[in-house]
Amino acid sequence: MADNHSFDVVSEINQVEMHNAVTQAQHECTVRYDFKGTKAAIEYNKKDNTLTLTGDHKGQLETVLQVLKEKMAKRGVPVNAVVRGKLEEATHDSVRETMTIHSGIESDDARKIVKDVKQLKVKVQAQIMDDKVRITGKKVDDLQAVIAHLKENGPKYPLQFVNFT
Predict the structure, then answer these.
(1) What is the CA radius of gyration of the chain?
(2) Would the pTM of this model clear 0.85, i.e. be above it?
């Protein structure tokens, strides 16, 4: 059995499920009693992969974020994919926070992943390909050991392991 097996390490979210989670959170913001008559809102920009949360004050903004995270978790979207931005004052005594949704593996993290895989002392090769890392090896057990290691010691954003062959 001289075949090589491989998989790709990526960081991406399901855009459809993210859209559904945002839609559900927006709906809850419009019907919840404690949000009636307030500026609590969520805007989702798919093109830029950003979320803009608005609220009357910081506490309300945190509650809106909590609602969004609950909907994301129910839809299977990794909650730690949301990278918080800076809290800023908006018009009419409200606050706003623009958050980005993490996508792709950053080059520094990709190099760190390759370095970690080499330090594992298993017979696999790691190769950076754009915003993903491809791991190849002869034994499936070695690849599974790499996956277990990366799940434990990977970057703070979510990783997925795809195209396992």
Answers:
(1) 20
(2) no
